[in-house]
Design goal:
The structure is a single chain. The chain is 33% helix and 24% strand. By secondary structure, it is an alpha/beta fold. The protein has 2 domains: 119 residues, 3-Layer(aba) Sandwich (Rossmann fold); 91 residues, Alpha-Beta Plaits, CATH 3.30.70. The strands form 2 sheets. Strands 3-2-1-4-5-6 form a 6-stranded parallel sheet, sandwiched between helices. A 5-stranded antiparallel sheet has the order 7-8-11-9-10. The longest helix has 14 residues. It is elongated, with a radius of gyration of 22 Å. It starts with 8 loop residues before the first strand and ends with a helix. 30% of the residues are buried. The model has no long low-confidence stretch (mean pLDDT 88).
């Protein structure tokens, strides 16, 4: 099977989210076709992308002329115009794009996108707000929800577990969490083992259910 990671991606909608996404894809070595219906936006970004076009993404013929049906992956990054977002996503489904991602600005918007056949719906504003809220409200250094009610967090080790080998800590039984990796001062992250002993200066990566990792991170 071909490596789909190397396949080009069409990104439709060049607001802040779409532009940032397309730029990051290019930085990672992925060819991108960037599309926006606003000519002034396309003009302003012409120097950023090798392949960029002004087009109405709700027009099937316009998409066909740009070769969009030949793409394996597409991202609908339109946020402000719900009708355009839904119509564009619907056309991509009709064009049998294999892997469609779409930005949603509300749960209702996301449900509609899912119902019409979009495989991946993302909520960038909501997800970022949730992540920042976790960082602001507690002792977390970083937070990433990897699935519904399951998260990875970066935090400091609670004092009761400093100097205790992880294999003897009973963390999973007591708190339902697992220390995945450890970073000592001046060193890189390494995988945690049963013999690993935490120190006060360490930073640790912990996995578990959201409420459990949050409770663990609040320990003094």
């Amino acid at each position: 099977m071909a490596d789909k990671k190397s396949d080009p991606v069409v990104v439709i909608g060049l607001g802040r989210f779409g532009t940032s996404l397309a730029q990051e894809l290019m930085r990672r070595g992925t060819d991108v076709l960037a599309i926006d219906r606003r000519h002034r936006v396309v003009q302003s970004l012409a120097g950023e992308f090798t392949h960029i076009a002004t087009a109405d993404s709700t027009d099937t013929e316009a998409l066909k002329q740009l070769g969009v049906p030949d793409f394996y992956r597409a991202v609908v990054a339109i946020g402000g115009d719900l009708e355009a977002s839904i119509l564009t996503a619907s056309l991509l489904v009709e064009l049998e794009i294999n892997d469609i991602w779409a930005k949603a600005i509300s749960r209702q918007h996301g449900r509609i996108l899912t119902r019409i056949g979009v495989q991946h719906v993302v909520f960038p504003e909501h997800d970022m707000g949730e992540r920042v809220a976790h960082l602001v409200s507690g002792r977390l250094l970083d937070y990433m929800e990897v699935d519904e009610n399951f998260a990875l967090v970066k935090t400091r080790p609670p004092k009761e577990y400093v100097g205790v080998p992880l294999g003897q800590s009973n963390l999973r039984r007591k708190y339902g969490v697992t220390v995945v990796a450890v970073k000592s001062p001046g060193e890189e992250f390494t995988y945690a083992t049963a013999e690993t002993e935490l120190t006060y200066g360490d930073v640790i990566i912990v996995s578990g259910r959201t409420e459990q990792v949050e409770r663990f991170a609040e320990l003094p």
